[in-house]
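Entry for the shared binder. Reason: the reviewer on the internal report wants the predicted structure included alongside the sequence.
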Amino acid sequence: MSLNVESQHTEREAGRSGFGARYALILIALLWACQLNGLIGLISGNAQSAIAIHFQTTKISWFSQVGLLGGVFATPFVVKAAAMYGKRRVMVVITSFGLVGDVLAAVATNYETLLVGRALAGFYGAAGALTYALARDVFPRRLVGPASGLLGGGVGLVALGGPFLSGWLLDDHGFRTALWFMAAATALSLVLLLVFVPESPVREERTRMDWAGGFLLGGGLTAVVYGIGEGAGWGWTSGRTLGVIGAGIVAVIAFLVVEGKVAHPMFPISLLGRRRVWTTFLATGLVSGAIYAGGVVTNLLTLMPNIPGVSGGLGWSATKAALVAAPGSILVIGGAVATGALARRFDSRLLLAVGGGLVAVGIGLTSQFHHSVAQFMAVGVFGAVGMGMVVSMIPVMIIESVEPEEQALANGAQGMVQGVVQGLLMQVAFVVLAKDGKVLNGTEFYGDDGYTNGFLLFACAVGVAALMVLLIPKGKRLDEAETGQAA
């Protein structure tokens, strides 16, 4: 009995003074799960130049892309299962899939097997959507905003510590050790979920899974991204390219038709049809997809060797790249924490637009000034502060747009939009890079003009996303949203 009283007292104290021990442990576990994709993406992005040279492949873009495609395909099924059977339970399942994929990639002796492992690991991609939904369910209302901001702002912690970690792994031990670390990081996430995170009580009625809708949506979007990725090799006007992209578009259209007729749709059309929801998906998906796609190209620029007339890379070590990026990473964290606090006083749409505008300016300046350490650090200030604002506002805007029972579906849909945008922009960027590229010893290298044009592409995309905020109607404020279902 005394333990119960003590526990209740602890909860009251946590509600008045901060997160408290219990909520702090939950936050740490969710933060690791939420940012695991970012950490693995950062390490794999830094490793891609070494992997391209080791496996002598001109298809290094698929090293990042295939996991993204796996996540896009799996997301509809993951978020629907989470809504019916429990978010924590489904996160444990997909984390287990991710661990198997990471181990397969680590032991791969050829590039094809490596890609299969990365594709399987991509099933974990939907975890981010579920962590924000879990945070809404398990934290008291007054902690949902700060918790969501910290979950989003955790990208800054990854951006700060991740490059140094990947630098140590890659510079001192090689890409194979980096792949094994990715498996260990996934295993740690699995343990944290099992030990510290409670299950959400928010459930949908258990119904039959809408397999047709899931395959049409996931398969259609995957086909579109895949077709664009292979378009340069197949020929943009070839029947093969047009057939794959066309089939994907037809599948997505068929999904919309099917979802309007089935009793229990994968994604309710009523949700997707609300203006506040779909405009939020488009704006946040475009800005975040462009930011993360731009990070892949930045990693290539800094880590690819500098070969006059062949490669415009800077030839930095991963450790040097980490040192250069460290001040910006601190600004990302500061921007995220500050913006999370401001979300209760200012319109989240305004904060997202300002953040997106700063990122667009930063990437635009990077397109022209990316040849030295001083240039990178000077122009990176704008993008770092803006990125902190963007990543902290995305989960807040979703919370303000939907009801608790829609949260996992909404996060999943936003994640799919982001994944598709990121995949499409990455593929287009690699086409742009290849126009100024050369193949040497089986590996494709890119010239300086290619990097310049690639960054301009991302700057324009982020700028458009910032303007799209004007389309988003006013919704609930964060203080008005229903939260804390399990607190």
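Summary line for the report: The first helix runs from residue 2 to 17.
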